[in-house]
Amino acid sequence: MFRTERPAPRRRVGLRRLVFFLVAFVLSLLLLARVDTNAAPRVNSSHVNSSPAKFAGAFVDWGPVGREHTLQAWEKWLKQPPSSVVGVDFYGQANWEDFHKLTWVPGIWKKLNPSRNVVWSVPLTVPGTPLADVANGLHDGEFEAAARAIAEAQPRAIIRLGWEMNLSQMAWFAKDHEADYIAAFRRVVGIFRRHSDTFKYDWCPGWGTQDTPADQAYPGDDVVDYIGLDVYDFKLEGSPEERWNTFYLKAPFGLEWHRDFAAKHGKPMSYPEWGVGNFGDNPYFIQQMHDWFVKHRNNIAYAAYFDVDGLWPTRISNGQFPKSQKLFGKLFSR
Question: How open is the CA angle 309-292-279, to the nearest 5 degrees?
Answer without folding.
Answer: 35
